[in-house]
């Protein structure tokens, strides 16, 4: 067990201080990588801590009392996050997702939301700011987050079956706490709340149809996510994946659904609407139908490292640039170079072999 912990801590420090090129074009909002993919989304992990120990994400055997979470001094401050975000927005980012760890564990998160909401996209529009959360703290926080300018909420919920859910979060949190969080978000004025269910074969696949049925007609959108080989600690095997095609087949057999067009280019989930008009579901098929070709997402870790892929093995230490007094222009140039050279397409190349790579943990780089 000790060996595993050391591996992950090593992984956190696997980063390079980025080069600052002598000359780069001024940010135009159209920065693209080697495969022509623009930089449009930034996922920000605001904490590496979580109050759940989901077996597929932060298994207890690794993230136990001995695990070294980042000390406060290493976290990006709200001012640093806002400064970074402003530089990414200049390069074209329009959507921000606050995640973690459990982002609502970060004190006064609504203050950060308010700071980010004051930024504008390259064409002067408000940023789309969303939050991914396990919802347990939403009853306390939803109103303040809405007032601060949060645009959207995504809630993770892996089963409505009490025993299955408690076993998956592994800290005995009841389903009712998450459902109360969803209601609190709804009462605060959030609409089209997304509910993410990670499906793992033999663990919660028997609960897929019940999940779809529960939220059908509610206005909320359940999205079924294929179990992925993120990080190095969740023991992923291809055999544990239930394909989106199978999920669609199971739901369609009980409640007919039809595929509908995506809302925008690069949307992660494929959309399916109930034939009776009572709402929609989504499937996220990172394993069986890789969507690297349209991936416009960058990730900023809790301690300010830039990752250009969810399955990355190392990051680019932007915090080092900030804390050594580099100017906005210099940091924007470093970001330009990193994205300009980006080649990532891990999900297109995935094999059982690559799944064993030492990748960064999702709780640290942000889901
Ligand atoms: N704590 C927050 C939450 O529960 O939503 C945010 C962080 S969590 C890492 C973000 C999302 O990643 C959750 O929906 C979670 O279920 C998903 N996730 C984590 N590990 C995963 C895996 N191995 N495969 C697929 N999805 C995963």
Summarize the SSE layout with pairings.
Elements: H1 2-12, E1 15-16, E2 41-45, H2 78-90, E3 95-99, H3 109-117, E4 128-133, H4 138-148, E5 152-156, H5 162-169, H6 175-187, E6 194-199, H7 208-215, E7 221-226, H8 244-254, E8 257-260, E9 270-274, E10 280-284, E11 297-300, E12 305-307, E13 315-317, H9 318-323, H10 328-340, H11 346-349, H12 362-365
Parallel strand pairs: 1-13, 2-3, 2-11, 3-4, 4-5, 5-6, 6-7, 7-10
Antiparallel strand pairs: 8-9, 9-10, 11-12, 12-13
The protein binds S-adenosylmethionine (SAM).
Keywords:
13-stranded mixed sheet, 12 helices, 367 residues, 30% helix, binds S-adenosylmethionine
Ligand inventory reads: S-adenosylmethionine
Mean pLDDT, all residues: 94
User: What coarse outline follows from CA principal-axis ratios?
Assistant: globular
Largest sheet: 13 strands, mixed
User: Secondary-structure element sequence?
Assistant: HEEHEHEHEHHEHEHEEEEEEHHHH
Helix percentage: 25-40%
Structural class, please?
alpha/beta
pLDDT < 50 stretches: 1-10
Radius of gyration: 20 Å
Strand content: 15-25%
Question: Cα distance, first to last residue?
Answer: 24 Å
Q: Helix count?
A: 12
Total beta strands: 13
Strand order, biggest sheet? 1-13-12-11-2-3-4-5-6-7-10-9-8
């Amino acid at each position: 067990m000790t060996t595993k912990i050391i591996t992950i801590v090593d992984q956190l420090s696997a980063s390079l201080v980025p080069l600052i090129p002598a000359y780069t074009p001024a940010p135009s909002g159209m920065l693209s990588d080697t495969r022509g993919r623009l930089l449009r989304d930034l996922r920000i992990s605001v904490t590496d801590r979580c109050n759940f120990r989901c077996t597929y994400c932060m298994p207890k055997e690794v993230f136990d009392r001995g695990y070294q979470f980042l000390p406060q001094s290493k976290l990006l401050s709200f001012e640093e996050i806002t400064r970074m975000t402003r530089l990414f927005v200049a390069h074209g980012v329009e959507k921000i997702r606050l995640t973690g760890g459990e982002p609502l564990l970060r004190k006064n998160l609504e203050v950060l939301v308010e700071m980010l909401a004051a930024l504008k996209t390259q064409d002067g529009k408000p940023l789309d700011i969303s939050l991914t959360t396990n919802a347990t703290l939403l009853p306390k926080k939803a109103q303040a987050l809405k007032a601060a300018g949060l645009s959207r909420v995504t809630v993770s919920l892996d089963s409505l079956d009490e025993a299955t859910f408690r076993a998956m979060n592994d800290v005995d949190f009841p389903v009712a706490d998450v459902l109360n969080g969803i209601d609190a978000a709804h009462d605060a004025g959030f609409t089209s709340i997304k509910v993410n269910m990670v499906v793992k074969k033999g663990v919660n696949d028997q609960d897929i149809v019940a999940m779809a049925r529960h939220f059908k007609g509610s206005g909320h959108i359940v999205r079924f996510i294929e179990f992925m080989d993120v990080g190095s600690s969740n023991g992923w095997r291809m055999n544990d994946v239930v394909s989106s095609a199978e999920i669609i087949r199971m739901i369609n057999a009980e409640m007919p659904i039809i595929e509908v067009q995506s809302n925008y280019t690069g949307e992660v989930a494929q959309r399916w609407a109930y034939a009776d008009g009572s709402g929609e579901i989504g499937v996220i098929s990172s394993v069986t139908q890789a969507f690297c070709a349209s991936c416009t997402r960058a990730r900023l870790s809790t301690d300010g490292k830039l990752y250009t892929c969810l399955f990355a093995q190392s990051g680019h230490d932007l915090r080092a640039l900030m804390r050594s007094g580099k100017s906005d222009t210099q940091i924007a140039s470093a970001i330009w170079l990193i994205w300009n050279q980006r080649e990532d397409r891990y999900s297109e190349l995935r094999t059982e072999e690559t799944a064993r790579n030492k990748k960064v943990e999702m709780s640290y780089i942000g889901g």
